[in-house]
Amino acid sequence: MLQEAGASATAVRRPAELDAVDGLVIPGGESTTMWKLAETFDMLEPLRLRIKEGMPAYGSCAGMIMLADRIEDGVAGQQTIGGIDMVVRRNAFGRQVDSFESDLDFAGERVHAVFIRAPWVESIGGDVEVLGRCEPGDRIVAVRQGPLLATSFHPELTGDTRVHRYFVDMVREL
After folding, report:
1. Which CATH number does the domain housing residue 100 bear?
2. Is 134 a residue of the active site?
3. Catalytic position from the list 122, 154, 164, 173
4. Any binding-site annotation on 139?
5. N or C: which end of the chain has fewer CB within 10 A?
6. Annotation-wise, does 29 bind a ligand?
7. Does pTM surpass 0.85?
8. Can 164 be counted among the known catalytic residues?
9. Which structural domain range is residue 117 located in?
10. pLDDT, tens only, 70-83
11. Is 28 annotated as a binding residue?
């Protein structure tokens, strides 16, 4: 998706690899596993530092959880990278069997979104821009704060590059 959006992509698994990129995509998956792996591979603090220094990052689904300053329904002691002044509720839309697809407005464009055990944003700070909401409940599912972008849905599963292109444009602007 990043290549189709005009960027080159490389895997980042170690601090030295993190230093070589202009922006970072934190994908979906399992946020507790991501946190534990980030600690195991000594990535948590380097990630926090690069985010604090202004490195653009985009988190989808579990990546949204990882970019949240605070989480609800996390496992005991679960940590995040942080950076976006928001509270995110893990698995807010339900379990795997509750996964769904929906059309929604993202940054002024209509996109098709795939939600899999997705979080939603419970609350945001004053510097956070809401880019998308979804039913049921008009829940916040896409946000931006400065160089950080997060969605609770998986745009990579639709073949539509607009969300990734939005992020690539963010990186280029900085």
Report:
1. 3.40.50.880
2. no
3. 154
4. no
5. C
6. yes
7. yes
8. no
9. 3-173
10. 999 989 999 999 99
11. no
